[in-house]
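Sequence design from tokenized structure. All designs in this work follow the same two-part layout: the structure record, then the generated sequence. An example of the structure record is given first.
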């Protein structure tokens, strides 16, 4: 069995942002040489997320509106966490969108459904954050 590990770094221009990172993850898979196995991709910061969904701008706007209704950024005073930070909402949004994804690797390819893509979700951006890619297989 082979293993592959790589850390990716992201820094968004906006506080909240979704980035399609499918090509970057596929590049890691190709670099690994693994043909059959599992790929794990996870955010290594508590205010960012990795998730799978459709790459459709209207859907991304819907996510943003939905998350803002569930955990509005302001007023900052509504969160007990915000005693010295202003990102209580970002922690909640990350919990909703998830920490990681696991994707099957079949014949050296990400084994996706027809519209599935991997996204990095940022909820407290404008600083560098890590994402881990771990691939295990043959």
């Amino acid at each position: 069995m082979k293993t592959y590990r790589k850390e990716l770094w992201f820094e968004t221009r906006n506080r909240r942002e979704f980035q399609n990172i499918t090509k970057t993850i596929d590049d890691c898979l190709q670099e690994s040489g693994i043909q059959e196995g599992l790929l794990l991709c996870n955010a290594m910061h508590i205010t960012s997320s990795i998730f799978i969904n459709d790459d459709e701008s209207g859907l991304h706007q819907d996510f943003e509106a939905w998350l803002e209704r569930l955990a509005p950024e302001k007023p900052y005073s509504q969160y007990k966490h915000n005693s010295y930070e202003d990102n209580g909402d970002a922690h909640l949004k990350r919990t909703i969108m998830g920490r990681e994804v696991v994707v099957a690797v079949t014949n050296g390819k990400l084994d996706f459904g027809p519209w599935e893509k991997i996204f990095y979700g940022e909820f407290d951006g404008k600083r560098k954050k890590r994402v881990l890619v771990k691939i295990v297989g043959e």
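Helices lie at 22-32, 57-70, 88-97. We note this feature because it recurs in several other targets discussed in the main text.
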